[in-house]
Design a protein that fits this description.
Blueprint: H1 2-10, H2 29-43, E1 48-53, E2 68-70, E3 88-92, E4 95-100, H3 109-116, E5 120-125, E6 132-137, E7 143-153, E8 158-163, E9 173-182, E10 186-190, E11 194-196
Parallel strand pairs: 4-5
Antiparallel strand pairs: 1-8, 2-3, 3-4, 5-11, 6-7, 6-9, 7-8, 9-10
Length: about 200
């Protein structure tokens, strides 16, 4: 941690160093993975699939649902845009959100920037959201629980989650994580679903 703490000290922060507890148990990576899997299984044991309107929640780490929806007929008709299927687009100030099933080299991000007069494009690969572990927060930013994204369909405005949270009406924001968890049991990947292009 010293490489991180040193930076804070240079900024004038007072850093207090505490000794490690003698009760800390050192675990191997395999043991840590097994421990986390057991905790996931216990937490998601009573989970079920919940469908929710994505317009009833906010996504504080990205602009989904906050911008002006750009409908397919509003996209430029030039040949360079014709090959893009199932592309969801929102404009929010100087940013453009583009969500497509997969990252595709044929998506003309730089041309979309010029066409819509934005400085950056936020890209989300829809299939990359599958199995993503998310935090479900209330209006006071307290975590109500965890969920795993099964699907997010921006065209239908529908979010499908696997979660044990029953008081879903309390959830006002969904914080996207970086871990993918298979069937609520096992971490199998780390990912960065939001990309600036």
């Amino acid at each position: 941690m010293e490489h991180l703490l040193g930076g804070y000290e240079k900024m004038g922060w007072k850093v207090i160093r505490l000794a490690c507890s003698k009760r800390v148990i050192s675990r191997s990576q395999t043991e840590r993975q097994k421990y986390r899997s057991e905790k996931y299984k216990a937490y998601f044991r009573g989970a079920k699939i919940v469908e929710w309107s994505m317009h009833k929640v906010g996504f504080p780490s990205c602009i989904i649902g906050t911008g002006q929806r750009i409908h397919p007929q509003e996209l430029p008709g030039e040949a360079w845009i014709q090959g893009v299927n199932h592309m969801y687009v929102e404009k929010c100030g100087n940013e453009l959100l583009v969500m497509a099933d997969r990252m595709d080299a044929s998506i003309p991000f730089y041309k979309l920037k010029g066409y819509f007069g934005v400085t950056s494009v936020v890209f989300i690969e829809r299939h990359g959201l599958k199995d993503l572990l998310v935090g479900l927060n209330d209006k006071d930013h307290n975590t109500v629980g965890l969920g795993i994204i099964n699907d997010l369909d921006p065209f239908a405005g529908k979010l499908t989650l696997f979660t044990p949270v029953q008081d879903f009406h309390m959830v006002s924001t969904i914080r996207l994580g970086v871990l993918k968890v298979e069937r609520g049991e096992r971490e199998y990947a780390k990912t960065r679903v939001i990309q600036y292009v």
